[in-house]
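Intended use. Records like the one below are meant for learning the mapping from a protein sequence to its folded structure. Do not use them to infer anything beyond what is encoded.
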Amino acid sequence: MPSFACSAILFDLDGVLVDSTRCVERQWRIWAAEHNLDPLRLLEVAHGRRTSETIQIVAPHLNAQAEVDIVESREAEDTDGVMVMPGAQQLVRSIPDKHWAVVTSGTRLLATARLKLAEIPLPSVLVTAEDVTNGKPSPEPYERGARLLGARIEDCVVIEDAPAGIESAKRAGARVIALASTFPPSELRSADAVVESLTALNVRVREKMEIEF
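Structure written out for the chain above:
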């Protein structure tokens, strides 16, 4: 079984630890209709990006921060169809404390709501949209996550589901395992490995932590 030795594992949230795709797409479609925007064009750029940057791309004429507050508060309240990803709780619990983090494009309000709903403990390091100047695909979010854990990014493994997040992690210098939950494997080829489910991953702690896939 192939594996990566690492000192820390950095998780994206939506599409990785929590299955929120239907909720995200439902709320973006509602918002697009309210502003007479093409929902397909919006969804093409939304996955993996901060809400503020998505809005700046598709509707630069709007007040991005005001719209972020609307969209993210709606998503936090919308729990219909939001579920924990198979294997997520077990995988997180197998990692030593302070050796994992969540790096998400969502706000802290949304991230904590989703983690609570999925019954996944809050990590010691949670990097959210408010914590960075530039969101994914910039390397800044994953660089910050590694730094707050006290780890070298080159010694970290990132688990992502979206091309923007994979690009962010690779530009930072991490190895990436992509989860084919939101996008097909053909769109995740820039990752170092692709798995169909978190249940395919196994963490072992010997002299150094290893994640098998």
